[in-house]
Write a structure and sequence with these properties.
One of its GO terms (cellular component) is protein-DNA complex. The chain is 42% helix and 24% strand. With 316 residues, the chain is of the alpha/beta class. The protein has 2 domains: 84 residues, Winged helix-like DNA-binding domain superfamily/Winged helix DNA-binding domain (Arc Repressor Mutant, subunit A, Orthogonal Bundle); 214 residues, D-Maltodextrin-Binding Protein, domain 2, CATH 3.40.190. Strands 3, 4, 5, 6, 7, 10, 11 and 12 form an 8-stranded mixed sheet that branches. 32% of the residues are buried.
């Protein structure tokens, strides 16, 4: 029954003391103001203004509305300002869900740039694997998801549960090489590149479920199922296990840019090249918010400029 326009009307009448003054402030005609007031008084079944020799004054009921207007209108103004700030890159919070190595290698520089250019924006970072990040995005629990997909020789090896929703915006941040990690003492450590088929009898070290799925895919193409003897989500531990000769492993570039590689660890390219495509994802609705798109672009820029360890990891 009582609308925001009614509260604004009561505040304007109180400031000006006339319906004509309130009409000018609100950009309406005096007849329109009069009709609005009469309709509201009829709905509330009580007068809200009383005529004086010069203008009008608020009744007791009108003062009640004015008191509430003094609380509601400033709160609405603050809400409008905050929304305008978010849309205009002046403030707000952007929630990002990212996998571990992406969060460590891509986000610090990207978010530092955003903090410098748009200090009013704050960020909340959560760590999750690709499937969980996409689920959070689609449930509205984050604004940006940093995800990855594996592919070989131009063919994407997309998992059945990793679908590109038509209502989403996907931007590729980078393409990572997948390296074979082995101890320096391994018989194949001197080869320029390694055929995975030659490792059918090897012990393997694997990481998260997605990484393990990639390993199984690679070995399946080579005609065998890997003997996974160690599993860890900690990519530093994974490198240490491989360097110690406890198995061989597959490592993408980002896992090598944020940790110092053990001197006993050798990284070799695969004869059948394997890659990991890293993307930033948001919804088309969120794409209308400049802060979200600018943050995504900052991540893409960092991904394109990141110095990957391609030239220093192929040592024998």
């Amino acid at each position: 029954m009582i609308e925001v326009k009614h509260l604004r009307l009561m505040a304007a009448i109180d400031r000006h003391g006339t319906l004509s003054g309130a009409a000018r402030e609100l950009g309406l005609s005096q007849p329109a103001i009069t009709q609005q007031m009469q309709r509201l008084e009829r709905d509330l079944a009580t007068p809200l203004v009383t005529k004086q020799s010069r203008g009008v004054t608020l009744t007791s009921a009108g003062r009640v509305l004015l008191r509430h207007a003094a609380q509601v209108l400033p709160a609405l103004q603050r809400a409008e300002s905050e929304i305008a700030a978010i849309a205009g890159l002046r403030g707000g919070e952007i929630r990002i869900s990212a996998f571990a190595s992406g969060a460590a290698a891509l986000l610090p520089k990207a978010l530092a740039r955003m903090a410098q250019e748009h200090p009013g924006i704050s960020f909340r970072l959560g760590e999750a694997e690709t499937e969980q990040s996409l689920e959070l995005l689609r449930k509205g629990d984050c604004e940006i998801a940093l995800v990855y997909e594996y592919h070989s020789e131009g063919m994407t090896m997309r998992r059945p549960d990793l679908q590109h929703d038509p209502d989403e915006i996907w931007q590729i941040a980078m393409e990572e090489h997948i390296w074979l990690a082995m101890p320096r003492s391994h018989p194949l450590a001197a080869d320029a590149e390694v055929n995975v088929a030659d490792l059918s009898g090897a012990r393997w070290i694997s990481g998260c479920p997605s990484c393990q799925g990639n390993l199984v895919d690679v070995c399946s193409v080579a005609g065998f199922r890997p003997d996974i003897t160690y599993e860890t989500d900690d990519y530093i531990a994974l490198q240490g296990l491989a360097a110690a000769g406890l198995g061989v492993a597959l490592l993408p570039d980002l896992m090598l840019t944020v940790t110092r590689r053990d001197t006993d660890l050798v990284l070799k390219p695969l004869s059948q090249k394997r890659y990991r495509r890293v993307s930033v994802v948001t919804t088309k609705a969120l794409g209308a918010v400049p802060g979200v798109m600018e943050t995504m672009q900052a991540i893409v820029d960092v991904g394109g400029s990141l110095l990957l360890p391609q030239s220093v990891t192929q040592d024998s």
